[in-house]
Amino acid sequence: MTTGSGPAARDWVLHVDLDQFIAAVELLRHPELRGRPVVVGGSGDPTRPRTVAATATYEARAYGVHSGMPLRTALRRCPHAVFLPSDPPAYEAASARVMAVLRGFPVRVEVWGWDEAFVGATTGDPEALAADLRQAVLDATELSCSVGIGDNKHQAKLASAFAKPAGIHRLTGAEWAEVMHDRPTDALWGIGARTARKLAGLGLHTVGRLAAADPAELARHFGPTNGPWLRYLAEGRGETEVTTTPWVPRGHGRETTFPEDLTDARDISACVAALAEQVARDAAADGRTAVRVTVKVRFAPFLTRTRQSKLPGPTADPATLTRAALAVLDRFDLTRPVRLLGVSVEYAPPADAAYTLTTLE
DNA sequence: TCTGGGGTCCTAGGACCC
DNA sequence: TCTGGGGTCCTAGGACCC
């Protein structure tokens, strides 16, 4: 830990991002695979259509394999790769061990998915803290991580990407313009390909240009909340509060893509019923009730449609949810082949609801 | 490269009411 | 009476992220 003289202590946001998390966990369980091309995804069968890679090791990437790629394509590109099934409970367990290590420090830890956490800390030397966090995670779990340091979550998140792999990087308001202004807008956390293309159409190709754009103009094109938010991101601003309050899920769902299209209406109904029952069991296990049910149908080749309905009252009863889901399914025109079915619910807020509200500062 | 599964939040339009 | 405007709820879809 750091004490004594030096820069005055102040608040920092750190972003801890595990390096190649899923692959790293798998290599710990299968040390003999170290150095070999490994692809993780689906049930691990690379001949099954319509499954994609969750991750690929650097050795597999050398063959052009990457996450999101269909396993059948990965197999074609790298026939000698080892294909492993995805094992979410194992990743969950590894993640929990990492978060426990972080919580051992005098900091606030906000878990942000399996392989990420924001850390709020008051210190005069954030690099020293970051190095301590990195080393403690490595010692306790054998997992490597990168740490970004910023004034807010947005900066810290981008900084950890600059730090990869196994590094530490600081990106604050002092460095923002120099580092970010010439980059494309989709370098920002929250701007993807679609929005970047739309911004480019307005002549806003870079972060610097977006940071100087007219908020009213942005609001006209992107909506009253999203428009000004885009400029806010480009200015390097972001949420500064790191909260240890556990996240309360807003909803939950299950969906399945079939290796071959479904055409029989009875098969489709049976699948929706099974998904609805599973979602009901999940909700009950979470101690939550549903207030709205949504059915998702993806038709061949790739046309996705949803229908939803508000339930008469909150429930986690499997029979009630199944009836509701099947009634919603009835509103689809099911004459085309179906490649995916999904059922999801919106949860009722728990009685002691403490939803985190986020506002622009 | 024929394209997973699990989420979150925002927007827009129509219904309905006063 | 042929027609205003605001507020809220509901629904479908889009965009983004891990």
From TrEMBL:
Give the note describing cofactor binding and stoichiometry.
Binds 2 magnesium ions per subunit.
- The active site annotation covers 116
Q: Which UniProt keywords apply?
A: Cytoplasm, DNA damage, DNA repair, DNA replication, DNA-binding, DNA-directed DNA polymerase, Magnesium, Metal-binding, Mutator protein, Nucleotidyltransferase, Transferase
Q: Which Pfam families match?
A: IMS, IMS_C
Instruction: Output the Gene Ontology terms for molecular function.
Output: DNA-directed DNA polymerase activity
Q: What is its EC number?
A: 2.7.7.7
Catalyzed chemical reaction(s): DNA(n) + a 2'-deoxyribonucleoside 5'-triphosphate = DNA(n+1) + diphosphate
User: PROSITE patterns this protein is in?
Assistant: UMUC
Listed binding positions for Mg(2+) are: 17, 115
Top-rank lineage group of the source organism? Bacteria
Q: Which co-factor is required? A: Mg(2+)
> Which residue range or ranges hold the UmuC domain?
13-192
UniProt xrefs under CDD domains: PolY_Pol_IV_kappa (cd03586)
Enzyme class (EC, first level): transferase
Q: Which Gene3D superfamilies match?
A: 3.30.70.270, 3.40.1170.60, 5' to 3' exonuclease, C-terminal subdomain (1.10.150.20), DNA polymerase, Y-family, little finger domain (3.30.1490.100)
Q: What does this protein do?
A: Poorly processive, error-prone DNA polymerase involved in untargeted mutagenesis. Copies undamaged DNA at stalled replication forks, which arise in vivo from mismatched or misaligned primer ends. These misaligned primers can be extended by PolIV. Exhibits no 3'-5' exonuclease (proofreading) activity. May be involved in translesional synthesis, in conjunction with the beta clamp from PolIII.
Quaternary structure annotation from Swiss-Prot or TrEMBL: Monomer.
Instruction: Fetch the NCBIfam families from UniProt.
Output: PRK03352.1
Family the entry assigns:
Belongs to the DNA polymerase type-Y family.
HAMAP family membership: DNApol_IV (MF_01113)
Q: What is this protein called?
A: DNA polymerase IV
Please name the gene that encodes this protein. dinB
